Amino acid sequence: MNNEKPYTRRKKSDTEWRKYAGNLLKAELKRKGMTYADLAEKLKEIGIEENGQNIGNTLSRGAFSFIFALQCFKVIGVKEIRLD
Prior knowledge:
Elements: H1 14-32, H2 36-45, H3 52-61, H4 66-76
């Protein structure tokens, strides 16, 4: 008999969490029809100097601060974030 609880899941590695974080932001950009360059322009409006290539690299690595994520979500116009 399996004593494992049905809601127990395998622990995700840091690499998996980074991929999830990057994909979450990429999905929001795609939903809004925005490119990395568009995001860079929007971030510039709130005083954050980035370029599209650096943003693409950052999101691909998935290693960015929660502050950066919030700034991106704000300028993209995200009202809700769904974590499935």
